[in-house]
Amino acid sequence: MIAKLKGLLDETGADWAVIDVAGVGYLVHCSARTLSALGDVGGACTVYTDLQVSENDMRLLGFADAAERDWFRLLTQVQGVGSKVALAILSALSIAEVQAACANGDAAMVARANGVGPKLAGRIVNELKDKAGGMPGGGVAAGMVNIAAGSASADAVSALQNLGFKPVVASAAVARAQAALGEDADLNALIREGLKHAAK
User: Fold this and answer.
1) Cα separation of 62 and 32, whole Å?
2) 86, 87, 184, 194: which is deepest, by most CB within 10 A?
3) CATH, range 77-132
4) pLDDT tens digit at each of 200 positions of the chain
5) What is the CATH number of domain 4-63?
6) Model pTM above 0.85
7) Cβ atoms of residues 69 and 86 within 8 Å
């Protein structure tokens, strides 16, 4: 099984990229977040992969980090969630947001993804609620921290990512910061406290 590709970004499309590894081009299907994380065409990149084989298709899925791949695999275990729907969810939400939505039973957040109706979103959060806490992405107390889109914590995660921290590190740092500062902490305080944890 192909677990990781390290090479040059050769070409990209709406939901795919071609990674050139020693002259061999691998077509990988990716979420929008992974595509944006790969950088510019011609640059070096690394993608974590999952190979899916069916009767009439063989498809390589690519992810910016192992945590996103782990969530993809978990999502596709839910009945009715194929690779296309799982990638749509991971395009619409960060892994911290997926984790928080599952832990808090927030089907409406998951339903923001293209192709995910309320019924399927409800099934996803119900089936993954008990597994969310043990998954990577939110770090300490992720399931108990409000990392909802538009919240100060979500903005703080975005700010840390803009400073160069990986999504997993940024999410974990903000989760710890909010656990330390409380639910009412403002954005600047979360960023300052989050930086302390992210730099460790």
Assistant:
1) 11
2) 194
3) 1.10.150.20
4) 688 999 999 999 988 999 999 999 999 999 888 998 898 999 999 999 998 887 788 889 999 888 889 889 989 989 889 888 999 999 898 888 888 888 778 889 899 888 899 999 999 988 888 776 556 554 433 333 445 556 788 888 888 888 888 776 777 788 878 878 877 788 898 899 889 877 76
5) 2.40.50.140
6) no
7) no
